[in-house]
Write the structure tokens for this entry.
Amino acid sequence: MDLDAVRTFVAVADAGRFQEAADRLAITQQAVSKRVAALEKELGARLFTRTPRGARLTIDGQAFLPHARDLLRAAERAAASVRPGSRALRVDVIGRRLAPAELLRAFHRTHPGIELDVVTLFDADAALAALRSGTIDASFRAVPHSARQAIDGIASARVYDEPIQLLTGPDHALAAARTVEPSRLAGHRIWMPGLVTGTEWGTYYDDLAATFGLTIEVTGPDFGTDPLLDTIADSSTLATFVGELTRLVWPSDQDLRRIPVHGPTPVYPHSLIWRADNPHPTLDALRSHLHTTRPEPPDTGTWTPSWV
């Protein structure tokens, strides 16, 4: 149904005259007549009766008027839902316990009136596909910054280099260490059952292991974070890697230890990626916030894979 014709019908019904409706709509009286005639033809019903005093609604016109108003209100709501800034910014954070979620929470604390729609997608390929299709506005990912991304219309900015920590139980050989060098971890069993080959985080830890001669085990089913913590707490030989901002809570009797890794410090390179043509004003606010609040890198030397 032609919404311009419906809008014209409502304008004539409200004004009571074709000419006055034309003046309100800034079109000619002839255009008003043509729109109303086309609507009557589409509906198969006469909507107005012309009188010396103007235009009077027929019984069919009276029946149609409230539905016409509903149509126009629905059209306005539909248009408003996609106007820049009128809907929540949809952002992928990979996982709700990980650093990207913490970065987004900090942004929301600074801008509490801004609406956010937080989602978690599987890997960088899924995030890039969602960005290109327009189903998300931005994503936090570890991705290389390449010319190909710019050609594809995907922009990116490095927003946080997150130091990696070693997590151990109280009986582990390194549990009392204040810090540990990556090379010193060679020969120790590092268990990360959540690593998936081909993902950006899987590739990162593969490169970390290859660079420093580490053994990262991915055997066994991945039952999630809490069972992983239970196993690490009870083991004298198993440890795992976690990010500095990863949110972990465990019972006090587990006495887990988070040990900084230095010399050099492996950092996980979080970037914000988005479509360069996305006009959402909250996206600009998020980018500005991440730029101004990006922490300084650790004082010691850092390590990232060559593809970063």
